[in-house]
Amino acid sequence: MNIRWFGTLALSIVTVSALAQDFPSKPITFVVPFAAGGPTDTVARQLAESMRKHLNNVAIVVDNASGAGGTIGANKVARATPDGHTLLVWHIGMASTPALYRKLPFKPLDDFEYLGIINDVPMTLVGKPQLPANTYRDFENYIRANQGKLNLGHAGLGSASHICGLMWQYAVKLDKSMATVAYRGTAPAMNDLIAGTIDVMCDQTTNTTQQIEAGRIKAFAVTTAKPLADHPLLKHYPTLQEMGLRDFNLTIWHGLYAPKGTPAPVLQKLNEALRAALRDPEFVQKQKALGAIVPAANDRRVTPEGHKAFVANEINKLKAVIDAAGQYAD
So which residues are the signal peptide here (predicted)? Predict the structure, then answer.
């Protein structure tokens, strides 16, 4: 046996073991690829508060690296030091960007370590308070009667709000697509919707519920296959399927990711902390209040392997929707 090789291997094992034992050795950063105040930002901050309890109460800070539909922040994590101290909280964009971007600076299935799904979030079709419609049927009729005159806001190419808007317009078969207005996150888009600068948005319940309840915006429908019967506010709104959009079912999920090459023991610690957070009654209740659903302990997607397999399937599914809409980025 090569003694030098054996010694190098032993040292490597000891180093990795020590790294895992000492982890986390400094504050952890959750990179959110959208502006502060948006739905993904809200999820990240609530998750950080719960996960830190299971990581020696280390500080977990949120870094809002917005732009380019989330790809700037995602690429920042893909290129970060793979020691577990820089993580990505992202939604369906992990699956939609491969079809949307011709020159994506990272490969979703190759450049990240998958840690698990955080939640599932229904979407709501909402409009500015000045819209004359109060029901979904009146809303759709109003949109059809004013084709070419109204606009739809979203958080950037590939964002959840962008994908939902594409799917809805495709499903209702408008003669003229609505003009779209892209923002660097849903928080600024929501501000403009409240102000009446934009007309329509399809956004996550984590961003719309409080605004609907306060009467700042109008809600017309939810995007889930079944009504949200357990939600005190959103149970009053129909699903798009009920309104005649056959097979319309869109739920936005969020996941947690580390840079490729992060040591396996560190990944295990992070996954354990994530799973503990998903069982935290306080986190679950906060998510429920926003209309989000935390996956059950036996949901395969909370495992790294199940998470990655799920995203691979979502990439294929969303490619068909995006190709049909024909909207791409350079």
Answer: 1-20
User: Rounded to an integer, what distance in angstroms lies between the CA atom of residue 293 and that of residue 284?
Assistant: 8
| Domain 26-121+252-325 listed as CATH 3.10.20.80 | no
* CA-based R_g, the chain, Å: 21
Q: What's the CA gap between 16 and 8, in Å, rounded?
A: 12
Pairing of strands 60-64, 28-32: parallel
CA geometry: angle at 261 spanning 69 and 159, to 5°? 10
Q: Per CATH, which fold does 122-236 belong to?
A: D-Maltodextrin-Binding Protein; domain 2 (3.40.190)
E-assigned strand segments in the chain: 28-32, 60-64, 86-90, 112-127, 151-154, 179-182, 200-204, 218-222, 251-259
Please give the structure tokens belonging to residue 204. 């996550």
> Do 122-236 and 26-121+252-325 have the same topology in CATH?
yes
- pTM of the shown model: 0.82
pLDDT tens digit sequence for 250-264: 989 999 999 999 999
182 vs 170: CA distance, rounded Å: 18
* DSSP code for 178: P
CA distances to 77, 84, 112, 273, 305 from 260, rounded to whole Å, are 9, 10, 4, 19, 14
Q: How do residues 185-221 score in pLDDT, each as one tens digit? A: 888 999 999 999 999 999 988 889 999 999 999 999 9
Residue ranges per structural domain of the chain = 26-121+252-325, 122-236
Tokens in use for 115? 């840690």
